Amino acid sequence: MGHKRKKLSERVADRTNKGFDESPFRNATADTPKGFSRIMFKKESMAQRAKDKRQHSSSEDLGLTAKEKKAAAAAANNTANKNNKDGTGKGYGKQETSELRIQPGERMGDFSRRVDDHMREKMMKATRDNTSTGSKKKKYFEKLKAKEQSKKLKAQEEKAYEEYETIKDRIRLNEVAEAPPTFTALPKKRKNDDFMANKKWKNAPGEEDFEDQIADLDQTKKRKLLEAGKGEEDKDKRTSVVENGIKKSRLKNLTPAGRRIIEEERKQAIENYRLMKARKELDRGGRSAKGNDEDAAADDAEAAAAGY
Q1: Phi then psi for 203, rounded to 5 degrees?
Q2: Is 4 exposed, middle or buried (0-12, 13-18, 19+ CB in 10 A)?
Q3: Where are the alpha helices (DSSP H) in the chain?
Q4: Rounded Cα distance, 161 and 187, in Å
Q5: Domain residue spans in the chain?
Q6: Contact present, 210 and 257 (Cβ < 8 Å)
Q7: What is the pLDDT of residues 61-119, one digit of tens each?
Q8: pTM tops 0.85
């Protein structure tokens, strides 16, 4: 904390050891400004750090031991010092330092500003080149992007393979079709279909079974309607009503095949009825053409009412 400090006795001892009102040190009156000295020291330290990093990476690549690494570093330092003294290496030569000397009559502030302007670009470049954070970040994002692209390509390949699997035919080697395919599934049940709703039917009925079921159903409905009627005088009327009701319910609940059979039977019954009436007319001696037409129309209406 700010208010914390040493004891008075310790402070007096430190002041005595440091001395008081002594002559200035030799470095205190040097011509080189403190700012320039700090810049040069920072540049040298950064160069030394980069050199150590290069040596470390090269020694790791070569697989050297700790002792061999130390010897290689010492040899590199000796070579660098020699080159710097001769001015032939990549060190900082005498020409660069001579350019930054203070000029006669130049003020210290102007000289410091000139040093900062001269070294600003080099310092920024050295800082940017020696920072490995940016390069590591760039490599990380490049690897991440490549990984995402590989995942997308793999997903597209799997999707294309699945689509191909759904549409391709599974044909075995040397397979030959010997018969047409057989369908074992039942057709979908329709509304108001009494025949398909019957649980005792395991499969769809054929035409022969269909006619038998129609006959059984007609007899059942006819018996129920006749039992519901009363009196013998209305027997003919009840019979026609029963037949008409059976016809309507039958046509409503029949399948297309059943309707086709009923229509064919109806047409055949009408033709037979017309032939019978024609024979009767021939036996009686015949009638006029007009009378025959009227009788034929009446016969058709009577046959339709009878349910043929």
Answers
A1: -130, 165
A2: exposed
A3: 8-18, 34-62, 66-86, 94-99, 108-130, 133-167, 207-228, 235-253, 256-284, 289-306
A4: 34
A5: 32-136, 207-306
A6: yes
A7: 555 566 666 666 666 666 555 545 444 444 444 444 456 788 888 888 888 888 888 88
A8: no
